[in-house]
Amino acid sequence: MGKKITFIVLTGLLFAGASLLKAQQLSGDRISRVLYFNPVVEPDIEEIKEPTNTAFFSAVSDNLSERKNKMLKTETQISFDSIDQKTIADYCLNNDADFAVVPKVKYFKVGLGKYVFSNQVVVSMKLFDAKGNLVTETDYDTYKKNMRLLGSTTNSVKIGTNGAIKGMLKQFRKMRSSAEIGL
What we know:
Layout: H1 2-28, E1 32-38, E2 40-42, H2 46-64, E3 69-77, H3 85-95, E4 99-109, E5 117-129, E6 134-141, H4 142-146, H5 153-182
Parallel strand pairs: 1-3, 1-4, 2-4
Antiparallel strand pairs: 4-5, 5-6
């Protein structure tokens, strides 16, 4: 009889300890799901959209693989300047996303020709929460920040995307820390 009670108590303690450890892991290791839309590409030329999208999402996936975030990608392109809050909230709800990012990649035009571009870009991003509220907005100019004169356009898009994500995360952390201090 004594062995059965000892076994039951030890088993109960083991399960209680395991559930406490699992609860600690869930609270500290929450993975945010971030929904990324296709970037708005300026100027609106069909030939540069696909390479820009490829370079942009390559940089996003490389950047998020280092963090505890999960990237969700949608092939939808939303206008950067006029964003509907309900549309963002619906996309987040349907994709089970915590945040949504609406990006824009603007190429510099150089020269007199219609299709002459430099390799410099400005990558802008707007971060929204799951309810469609604007959390933060940032941009990264590869010429002003990096003084890049040479290099491929693909690398400029990747550098601009990484810089914009870092700037967005920096602003987000500042907002969270000031909100915690205010509480």
